[in-house]
Records
---
Amino acid sequence: MKRHFFLKFLTPGRIILFLVLIYIALLTVPYIRHKKVSESFQRDFSEREFYSQTTGTERIAYINDNTDALLYRLNMFEQAEKEIILSTFDFNADKSGRDVMAALLHAADRGVKVRVIVDGFSGFMDVKGKGNKWFQALASHENVSLRIYNPITFLKPWKMQARLHDKYVIIDGQMFLLGGRNTMNLFLGDYSKAKNIDREIFVYETEDQKDSSLYQLRSYFEKIWELKDSREFTCKKLTGEIEECLISLKKRYADLKETYQEAYTDWDYQKLTFETNKISLLCNPLEAENKEPWMWHSIHQLLLDGKEALIYTPYIICGKEMYQGLTELKEKNIPLEIITNDVASGANPWGCTDYLNQRKKIWKTGAKVYEFMGGHSCHTKAVLIDDRMSIVGSYNLDMRSTYQDTELMLAIDSPKLNSIIREEAERDKTYSKTIGENGEYIQGKNYQPKELSFGKKVFYAVLRVLTVPLRRFL
């Protein structure tokens, strides 16, 4: 009788539902508990120096324009003599993506060793997906190695949450570029009306220093490259279609030299850059797993050492520990301002929706939030502390960047850089709205309200419910 009842209970629909629930559990449970920062990391971090009273050997340029960002990459690739390293979260085979491929292949033709690593999500969607033939063409060159970090494997759902979110370029032992831009039209060049505003730091080495940020970044890359989670992507067969892509990319390189002539002139990096006191690399753990929040701990400790602070972030999705960290700033009388996207202009619907749900909780921490409404969505990730420290890179103020993804930020002691970004922040505040002491919104003089369409209002209303159980993984 019991056996008959059990067999009757196990209908196909219930079996499928049970399997789906198990899969969701395997996908999420490993990341539900947030790890704490180990005592050893806390001790090592406390011993690091992030400020210097003397001028250092590393000079920088600040890149806040998409076309300039593409020009810098093209010129850097052209200057390479031994090796090019490119790490990116997203790498699309769109116009700017093919620009980058064409320049990389030309460098490889000159004998330059090229190593590229992309995240597994981009690897699934672009490298192995719609852009496959272009990436196979790139990988077909004997001087090009392409790896995918933590490839999407549906048979291992417990691995799928961890992503490679770093974005940087290293040229030989002399220069690198690091920030928040992905390799696609949205961030590079002027190929689409839709753009994301972002900031990057170009670092130029004037002396060979073993403790420089370049050495720190190079060491970080080598560890990522050698992980078991980083899998080789190869050209399986040089088909006629792939050979056509190679021909197209070679022609594209010739066109690039005509279209972007400025990128193919001799750049005086000494004149293009300005001095810094010290540059330090901040990172998260490398492995594709639930992570200790190294980055948040590092930024929070630096914030606590300051007298005032400002954070640029595309969106805000805080966990319990992050809320506590922000509240601690208020308790220590360290005023904090945050510039994030207005819900009507944000490019990440999940982040926008969570802000609608969490707005009052965020304000209770004491942070003054400016909701930015510019011509384009703001993708900048930066922290300003007092008038010297600027922290720029890939880290979003959210739980994914804190506990799940690899992240890189440069902590730069430079009054000049701090002043440049602070001036931009003051301008962006005029394009923002913020809540006053009476709880009502105050609009900046350049703020232009944008009404959500009826469809978007319905969309966000639905997402506001869906995001509640999912917010740790957004």
---
Amino acid sequence: MTDQILVLTDAEDVTAGRVAALLASRGAEVLLLDPGVVPHDAQVEMTAGGTGRVRRWLRVGGRDVDLDGLTCVWHRRPTAPVPPSTVADPEVRAHLAGEVKTYLDGVWRALNCRQVPAPRDVIDRADRKPYHLAAAVELGFAVPPTLITADPDRLLEFYDEHDGQIITKPLQRSPRGTAEAPMGRYTEPVSNRDLGYVAALRQSPMIVQAYVPKDVELRVTVVGAAVFAVEIHSQATRHTRYDWRRYDHQNTPMEIHALPGDVAGRCRALVDRLGLSFGAIDLILTPEGDYVFLEINPNGQYDWLELATGLPITAAVADLLLTGAAPAGRTKGPA
């Protein structure tokens, strides 16, 4: 029986394209679908009742795909439904997008096949920082002293408790707003000037943490049982001192990191606790040699780590999609 794998992601997802090519070379049938084109350029339909069975299928590009025949769905980086430009009213657009999303989420959730890294609702739950932060603490990870609050007075108290050495980060991972007026922010230190605007905190809660000194930062990618750890030397350039996602690749060395067995085991346990089969975990290695947990992304990027280090992450992801497992030993790059 030929494996049939549906990859839900952005049409320009190069990383998914690499995995799809490898899967095809192994004999699998792979279809990449951007859910944002449903229902305008693709149709997902369902019938139930009468015949005593439920059927679901996808029509796209002149091809009919039996969704009940899939062996795996990879919730890679699906885009949100986008109503046609002919619908101008913002409330109507929001309603239509919500209807399509609700329908598609229900269809994917009901499919009787492997779902990587998990069904969509499980992914969304795992991505919530208060949720996965609590799970990390319960599993024994060291975590920076943390406050999540919308109370300006509590933030000021926390600031004093840690001698002003604190950072803030948003609760939501993805930038919000529009292309013309994006609303996103990185992890930032709190300055004296910032304290002058502390009253604005009442509008929305924020994560506040004590600043943790860094030797290096680590991106740990867990794929099934495999654990791939990469050092990101974020302190080598001022651009990435507080948040390596500011990206300064030419001046930010990256190397394979030998993660201690207990830390690797804890990373696997966290991914499992959250109901996932894949997770990208951010850690700090302090100058004293302590490993400190920051957060986990249930579908974090990894292609750039593989290109920089040679770690076989793409092969492990392909293994996971085909078999539901990735061998624990595949954690090293080329000799």
